[in-house]
Amino acid sequence: MKAYLAIIISILLLLGACSVEKPSLPVWDIDIKIPLVNDFYYVSDLADSVNIIIQEHEDYGDMLYLTSSGEVETPTVGNIDMRPAIDAQFPLLSGISESQAIPFEDGQDNADLSFGEIETGSIRYRFRDMVTQTEEISLTIAEIKDATGNPLRISYEGTEGWQAINLAGYTFGQINDSNSLDELTLSFVSSSSLPDFTPLGTMDFQLNETLSFSMFQGRMQNLEMSMQSSAAQIDIEYPYNLDEAITLDGAKLQIDMFNRMGFSCEFIGFFEARVDSLTAPTRIPIKDNNGNNYIVNAANADGPGHTQLIIEDGIRDLIQLMPEHVEIVDAMVRIDTASGYGSIRNTDYLNADYTIDLPFRFMLHEQPILMKEAQQINISADNRDKIAGNMQSVSLDMEVMNKIPIGLYARAYFGHSAQIDPQNPDSYGFYKEIHIESAETDPDWQEISGLALNKAELDLFTVETLFMIWEFTFEESGDWVNITAGTGDYIALKSMLLGKLRIDEGEL
Length: 508
Description:
The protein is built from 5 helices and 36 strands. It is mainly beta. Among the domains are: about 25-50 and about 365-505, no CATH class; about 85-210, Jelly Rolls (Sandwich).
């Protein structure tokens, strides 16, 4: 009995000398992947059908083009004025029927008329020193006709003193006659009770005031129509700050001119480029490849005359300045003797549709280009809980496939608002920068890892909606680069959060 008691006491003493610890539960880490972005950025998506379009290049296929277009026009021609210098006196004899030609020409040497419709103008005449035996005197001018086609007729009705005939609605000459009307035929008929050839008096005839023709056929000596500079401006918008990141090549200005005048005309003008309001403008003349002014075709029976002006050499040099504004200055159209015979109405004018095209063929500079809109990233409640929990060793993992021939650095800015401004650190939480090889260097998936996130950066992902915007800085190309816009021209980006989630059963 004593032996058993000794054993029990020994066991109690042993237990009393030991400390018994609480049982420990297992802790382990699991790998967590939270997808963020899986997108393809196609070059063709840059096209907005307004400033950036896709069109076929003769050498490189479908390419992006920066484009700007508009319309300019001259004022309407208005009336064509002539001022004859006819001031004649005709002795009137009894019993005659004869014709006399007098010169008809523009005293201002502005035009040679073949046919015209009068808008305003008048003839003045008077009979003086007339004998009472006069029975009839009439003057007919064959080349001047009223609206019904009858020649103008002046008759003596016993009144002396100056009288005027309003010529509005009358026509001069024969329509569509290419010969100049250089004289008027005056036909006199007279009778009296006196013997033939007896003097009856005198007729004074004046056609020396301005004649305004609403419709004119003939030849112009010099008619100039100015184009207002304020109506001929071309504003160039460079999206994504491209003006600072690239030097453009291959710019082309196309002007389609539509001439409603029946005269060919000479187009004279200059292009003036302004980089900004502080820099003096640069000017080049608008000339063809031979250094001559462009000639615009005349209208015909089928409609306005169409002339297409393609300007490349001069405009290329101008656009390489990356101007904000190109303006047509000191521009006008001129009709002169070189235009030959033609026809014009006072409502005629010349208008032009212009398009400036800049293919995405450029030399790249190391200048950041910010995308226009931030991308929205939605994070599920389950993933937010994981991020807010025990995620450790978190990094941003990316894969990139670049199918364009440009290497670049890309910065991804993350923030809680879509209004992210890289120049304002308060507008975003953080950014990460990566390098992307060009398609020529690495056309496959490029894995980019090791973009570790600290606790403050990770906390940005604990909200339901996050925003990200890309800023690209292209590597200096040193040579011309062509950006095509086919289905195979894109940058693909995948990104996710990688980390370890620590599982502790004691906290479950």
